[in-house]
Specification:
Length: 771
């Protein structure tokens, strides 16, 4: 086992696989119900309203159900759809089958001030979204005691197209959302846990499905200017075309940030979408194009800041950064008939990423440094189809859903050592073909007006071919099959309160290269053990959701989640290493309160206990090999703490305002201290951030708003790690170059906090015109 030198951008095991063509699962059409089902609570939504299935005038929608809070805050009429809140072909939204299952409206998301597009996902209770590098790199995600890195174990979809990338050059499950235009979000469906048959790879902790709007009531032109060179232009409009609507949106952005070495972000983004019909009988075709170039200030060692070698916003390697592009074409289809409904989608995505990072500085190469180049060029295709049948069982309402999902990735991957972005040497170069087919079925029965159950099973087959262009011994084929039974039960409502139970098996894929690699790319004489292509997860959850207090939606979920192995593929080393099995358990308490039509309050608290299981004898050997050098040995002792697993996440939000006039928002989010090493010798400090917004809008759709990010100018960190590295000023560097220090010590380096700071107080002024 190597001495600890984690690469913060390459976390964790995850799934990958074989693909043909066929669709996204049914997201839960409403069960055919008898008259007695009128007692059932409506689908929970952050805005506090049931998602309507038909076009209704706004006033009638607000008064639709007496047990629901009145109204919702509308950010801007120009950014909302004229009809359904749900996009064409997204399918009807049924009642929630878990307490943690929610839908967040696009209006509520856009009422939040946030720094970057990926932070739109912080509308998910208990989810923290951060960044440890430049503004073109995928975000870092934290949920339910997991450091999900760039997306591992959190499945993200936009308009039915998967965002997570399998066998990615930088990390398994890499989910870049910098191309997302928040104003185009219609709704966000959130699920947590491995209890849903239509959720497969990367979904063990949760899934987020983002639907896009089909049209706008008015055209929109938006200009934003802010601190540190932030500039953003957005234009969006729709027009009737035949029997449907054509939506166009374009975005241009630049940003330098507070960094000594400016980010110099240059982003261009566009969307074209044609839609026709309704959410249950409709079709849509969407095209997207995105390109971005940036410099990045990666995390820096605390000792460099404390000694004055670097400013807090300085960079050890100012040539880090990257460029990326993404082009996507997708189509969705939904149709209902006398027996039930159909849903299907297909997509093709062409993407490319070139990323330059240096996380360990001069640990591997004392002369040129440790910068490396990761290249990922892929073509991803997929198709899915599902059928929902309404019927009865012994006179009881019943619904059956079956579905087939497929995906195939053709990937060119390269890893090389570089100096100031110039090529130094190859580490590995691979061509990978990876596909998957998932088949599922589930049956829901309403036994009484207060009891319904859902039982289902999912089967996944993954296959991958890896051709290593530099070492044929690391080429090969891997395949794997897993079956995953699922169960959910809902009791109630009793006095506007429902109880939920869920349990099931899940899985995630690992990097296909780890499943075929037998020799260390950096040292072919070192034999490596192949990693499994698929890893089993399993979990259970109980919850309660109530609206017994007028205007208040509250839910409490208690969960447990086990993972057979947290296997990590090291993007900078080019190989994989397996960690032990893990267990996490905890609770989430989510509240949304609407006492008045112009007051919206939400408060969420999530706490998790996360630990590895078993004893790490390999790490004990590493710890012993570092004896006599405390600067290297500290933090390397064996232990059961899971690095970067947050024990607590909390958030509170207050939004004020009507459809016209003054409006405002305050949002506070808190990330508790967490262990950074398995022995808990290093711990991160808490991060507490307050963002605010104040604005004014008039009834013709025009508005002006001022966002203040990090309102109290808190001196905190976006993220903190602890691992070994070497700087030229370290005493250990001289001992290693002279051959005095042992090899194990020099391979580990100086253990230290390595951090990426939160940006200081930032202002952004936005002017919006509607036409």
């Amino acid at each position: 086992m190597r001495a600890r030198r984690p690469e913060p951008g390459r976390r964790g095991g995850a799934l990958t696989a074989f693909s043909a063509m066929v669709l996204l699962a049914d997201d839960g059409s409403a069960l055919a119900q008898s008259n007695s089902t009128s007692r059932e609570l409506p689908p929970i939504q952050i805005s506090g309203r049931e998602t309507p299935r038909r076009k209704q005038p706004p006033a009638s929608r607000r008064a639709s159900k007496p047990i629901q809070p009145n109204g919702r805050i509308v950010v801007d009429p120009a950014t909302t759809q004229a009809a359904d809140d749900r996009s064409v072909a997204s399918g009807a939204k049924g009642p929630p089958s878990m307490a943690s299952e929610i839908t967040v409206s696009g209006e509520e998301i856009n009422a939040r001030p946030f720094t970057r597009p990926g932070e739109a996902l912080e509308a998910v209770p208990g989810l923290i979204v951060t960044q440890h590098s430049g503004e073109g790199k995928a975000n870092q995600y934290f949920l339910r005691g997991y450091n999900l890195d760039h997306g591992t174990d959190l499945a993200i979809y936009v308009d039915g197209v998967p965002v997570n990338m399998r066998t990615h050059a930088h990390g398994q499950g890499y989910a870049d959302l910098n191309w997302l235009i928040p104003e185009t979000i219609s709704a966000m469906d959130v699920r947590k846990g491995p209890y849903f048959v239509d959720e497969g790879d990367f979904a063990s902790v949760g899934s987020v499905r983002i639907g896009l709007i089909d049209r706008t009531e008015k055209g929109l032109a938006q200009v934003t200017a802010g601190s540190f060179g932030y500039r953003r232009l957005l234009g969006m409009d729709s027009a009737k075309l035949g029997d449907g609507s054509l939506l166009l949106a374009g975005e241009l952005g630049t940003y330098n940030g507070p960094w000594d070495n400016p980010d110099n972000v240059r982003k261009l983004n566009g969307l074209v979408r044609y839609s026709q019909g309704t959410a249950t009988d409709g079709v849509s075709v969407t095209g997207m194009a995105y390109a971005n170039r940036w410099n990045s200030t990666d995390q820096v060692p605390q000792r460099a800041i404390m000694s004055g070698l670097l400013d807090r916003f300085g960079s050890e390697d100012p040539t880090d950064g990257g460029n990326t592009n993404r082009f996507a074409l997708s189509g969705r289809f939904a149709q209902s008939d006398d027996l039930g409904s159909w849903k299907a989608n297909a997509y093709v995505v062409k993407s490319q990423l070139d990323l330059f990072n240096n996380f360990t500085y001069f640990l591997g190469d004392p002369r040129l440094g440790d910068q490396f180049h990761q290249h990922d060029d892929r073509l991803m295709t997929g198709a899915n189809i599902s059928r929902t049948l309404n019927g009865s069982f012994a006179g009881l309402p019943m619904q059956t859903a079956i579905g087939l999902q497929s995906r195939y990735d053709a990937i060119d991957l390269a890893l090389a050592s570089t100096f100031r972005r110039g090529f130094v040497s190859n580490v590995r170069n691979d061509k990978v073909g990876e596909g998957s087919v998932g088949l599922y079925a589930e049956n829901t029965v309403r036994w009484t007006d207060w009891l319904r159950t859902t039982i289902g099973v999912r089967g996944d087959y993954y296959a991958a071919d890896v051709t290593s262009l530099l070492n044929s011994n690391n080429s090969g084929r891997a395949d794997a099959t897993l079956g995953s039974p699922k169960f959910r039960m809902v009791l109630g409502p009793f006095n506007q309160t429902e109880f939920f139970l869920g349990a099931g098996y899940g899985m995630h894929s690992n990097d296909a290269r780890g499943a075929t690699t037998t020799e260390d790319p950096g040292d072919p004489g070192t034999r490596l053990t192949r990693s499994p292509l698929l890893v089993r997860t399993k979990g259970a959850e109980v919850g309660v959701r109530s609206r017994i207090v007028r205007g208040l939606d509250t839910s409490l979920s208690v969960f447990i989640l086990d993972q057979d192995s947290e296997i990590l593929f090291s993007g900078d080393a080019g190989d994989s290493s397996a960690t032990r099995a893990s267990r996490r358990y905890g609770f989430e308490w989510t509240n949304h309160y609407r006492p008045k039509a112009w007051i919206d309050i939400d408060a969420d608290l999530a706490m998790t206990h996360a630990r590895f299981r078993g004893y790490d004898s390999d790490q004990a050997e590493v710890y012993a090999s570092l004896a006599g050098y405390p600067e290297a040995q500290i933090g390397n002792a064996p232990g059961n703490y899971i690095p970067n697993a947050p024990a607590m996440v909390a958030s509170v939000g207050l939004t004020l305002g009507e459809k016209t006039g003054w409006f405002g928002s305050l949002r506070w989010r808190y990330l508790a201290p967490s262990p950074l090493t398995e022995d808990n010798a290093f711990r991160s400090s808490a991060t507490s951030i307050l963002n605010g917004r104040l604005g004014y809008r008039i009834d013709n759709g025009w508005r002006v708003q001022l966002d203040a990010l990090n309102l109290f100018n808190t001196r905190a960190n976006q993220i903190t790690y602890a691992y070994g590295s070497l700087l030229k000023t370290d005493t250990l560097t001289n001992l290693c170059t002279s051959g005095t220090a042992p090899t194990a010590v020099c391979q580990n380096g100086v253990m230290d906090y390595v951090l990426h700071p939160v940006e200081p107080l930032t202002f952004r002024l936005t002017m919006v015109g509607a036409f």
